[in-house]
Amino acid sequence: MKKKTIYLFLLIVSSLLGYAQSEGNIDLENFSIMSPVQSGIYDARGWAMQDNGTWAYATNKIPFTDSRSNNARPGGLNELGQDNFISFELHKIMIDDEQYNILIKKYIDGEFEFIYLQRNWHFFNSLQFWVFKSEKLKELMPEETKFNVPYIVNLECYLTGKIRNYDKTVFTEKGLNLANYKTGVINNFQTTNTSYNDLIIRLVQDKKFGKIINDGNMFIAVYPIKSGDKEVARFKLIANYKHENLNKMQLSPDNWKNLFAENFYEVQYNIFNNFINQSLAYYIELDKATTAYDSNYQWGVLRYQMGDYIGALDAFNKAFEENPKTDDFMIYAYRGNTRSKMGQHVDAIADFDKALSLRPKRVVDYPNWIRNYFNRGVAKYYLNNGNGACEDWKKAYDLGYGSAGEYLMDFCGKKLP
Question: Which domain holds residue 363?
């Protein structure tokens, strides 16, 4: 049987796979890690009103506004446009036991090695990020959509920042400059010796402890449009500062009519809807817990989402102390996944066994219940019980969990119809 890494599927949303714990960073201990991507936008059409009164568009880029040929622009400036993006991503992070999201915009960047001569252009990838409370997602995607009416949301950002050339950076111990070791150019890039995730976490931590001050802010304007059967969403990000008068001016309804008059991005409405709601699905309303059991259960799920498996296991165990006779299969499933993530596969199998013995009361819960067969198979595989793993994956596949088919073919040598 071919050996390769098997990733443990989450119970509810399978896109969150394999949280990576930071190693060797003492100052990050007991501090939240950043979740993997919860949702993203990777393709959009950028529109810009030209100086001749026509509209021009490009993929993942807002074109320049002049109707002349762009060939006159030096270097790679043509490729950048007024604005461009590689992806818009939403992540999650905890700050002082409050739920925050991080909006990350990755984009194509570049610079001249000889700026004044405008010679030797080099492309690289940069990103901007905005940290804001997760409740704001509800404003970005109201429960009832009013089509053909634009609106704007003030994210009231906890922190904003930019990381230039995040793929090609070197660490300078005193935090002075970043050298782009590909081009040799030094232009005040930020410093990191790990991934940009760790750098963002460090900046959040510095903000938390008052080492840095944030005066940046972000507004997101949204314009859902419906014409016949066609539904699209126009959106644009508007950088601003945390200033009361500036905020009032930006939020004024008189300003709304001009928000989309010159440029914007456009996607199918369902893409923008999913972008927000897939992240909102991870938001847990902790204040609605009515019992100690519910509170600990919810904290366990939240810690699990963030990759804090020790904290998640502790919270789930406390929930069981409050209600040891619970018949909710989901808490056993969550604890089983948590233990598997921690390498406690024997205990995980016991939890999956219990979860499978508690058949769901609602038909809608059956897909999550069936996944216990799959996840139990993963735990058995790690205990070198290949036959048991294949039996569980076959059971999951027969019950309708299609993703198990890949494992049956790759690890069990099964040929599926």
Answer: 327-412
